[in-house]
Specification:
mainly alpha
Length: about 70
């Protein structure tokens, strides 16, 4: 669906940071999170809702980059 050459999108209104802060009424109840798929919701739940805080996870050492000439720490 192509637009004609005369159809332009209006410029979004610009606000400074101070305008955003001054006009903020603090009402966070009107915020609606963006829609996401059930798989994304499940992934977010796994990431944010770890019941034991990751205490049971084994520590995994990351290999240093090939060009790094420092001794490993720890």
């Amino acid at each position: 669906m192509a637009r004609g050459p005369t159809a332009t999108i209006p410029v979004a209104p610009r606000k400074t940071l101070m305008e955003w802060i001054e006009l903020d009424d603090g009402d966070t109840t009107s915020f609606t999170p963006p829609a996401c798929s059930p798989q994304a919701k499940a992934l977010h739940a796994r990431i944010t809702c770890n019941p034991d805080g990751g205490k049971g996870d084994a520590a995994v050492r990351l290999p240093p980059p090939a060009g790094l000439r420092l001794p490993p720490l720890g």
